[in-house]
Amino acid sequence: MSSSSARAIDGKALAQRVRADVAERVLKLKSKDITPGLTVVLVGEDAASQVYVRNKALACEQAGMNSDVIRLPAETSQADLLELINKLNHDKTVHGILVQLPLPSHLDEHAVIEAIAATKDVDGFHISNAGLLLTGKPLFRPCTPYGVMKMLEDEGVNLRGAEAVVVGASNIVGKPMALMLQAEGATVTVCNSKTKDLAAHTRRADVLVVAVGRPNMITGDMIKPGAIVIDVGINRLDNGKLAGDVDYESAQAVASAITPVPGGVGPMTIAMLLVNTTEAAERCL
Ligand code: NDP
């Protein structure tokens, strides 16, 4: 077995620091009679979504923010959901609105996200927010890639001129991730399911971000020695354990730093949701 060398990037500890900073900002807002408020809308009974929503609400409360979870039955109509969002858009006590995805299949996810006021879209999924990010004037950055950027900053990674490779090109992780890395001066390659020789790309990466959803697909031989490896993937294995998209053991023998799963990117996603909601409230000052 090869000797381990990479430093484990502790997302849990950094998330705690970010959340402590948020709590201080919340105190300042409260002294001005503003309590940041996040409303999460959950449609249906998806088990994973229930856990995510509970964790988000708990994190808000721990930071001194208001949090409200609106649970709707799976058969909720598109019209009723849009009406609720419209009401929340006009509610001054609500600074952030998050509709937990995925939605039941009869609902139009795109239309629902577009119905959220861009100024309250703390997930950063609204096309206005995607466009603002694209043009270098972000209002809300999607929480997961935003959390990754925070980790890279905390690690002191110099992205100027760095080769960054993002594996995965979804609207919520891969694409915004690429834009954020590019904005910091990295030369970015984005790979998807059609990429011909994935390893040829990943082996060039000084910074490798993997967000696919396939357990252990990136192995140590696909990683440049000394690279920073960020594993966004969360996969539930048959034995009930969680695994990332990166094979941790072989990767850590090659990389200089790597995020574990769990305890890496996951906690940062929630921390950045709190940051976005606090920013939304601060804009009301
Ligand atoms: P999606 O399924 O929306 O996107 C997956 C992306 O991976 C697509 O762009 C797809 O390509 C690409 N892909 C699929 N197979 C390959 C392959 N063999 N080689 C290269 N690229 C491939 O997933 P998400 O972006 O929503 O999530 C990705 C992972 O991150 C999941 O495990 C998810 O659970 C996790 N996640 C973790 C979060 C956290 O807080 N840590 C938050 C959000 C997600 P194509 O575009 O061609 O289809």
What's the short story on this structure?
The chain has ten helices and eleven strands. The model has no long low-confidence stretch (mean pLDDT 97). The structure holds NADPH dihydro-nicotinamide-adenine-dinucleotide phosphate (NDP).
How would you sum up the major sheet? Answer: 6 strands, parallel
Give the overall shape: globular
Specify the helix fraction band: 25-40%
Going across the major beta sheet, what is the strand order?
1-11-8-7-5-6
Q: Report the count of strand segments.
A: 11
Provide the CATH architecture of the largest domain. Answer: 3-Layer(aba) Sandwich
Bound small molecules, deduplicated: NADPH dihydro-nicotinamide-adenine-dinucleotide phosphate
Compute the number of structural domains: 2
Structural class: alpha/beta
What is the first-to-last residue Cα distance?
A: 57 Å
**CATH fold category name of the largest domain:** Rossmann fold
Question: What is the CATH C level class of the largest domain, in words?
Answer: Alpha Beta
Residue share in β-strands: 15-25%
Looking at CATH, the homologous superfamily of the largest domain is: NAD(P)-binding Rossmann-like Domain
Contiguous helical run count: 10
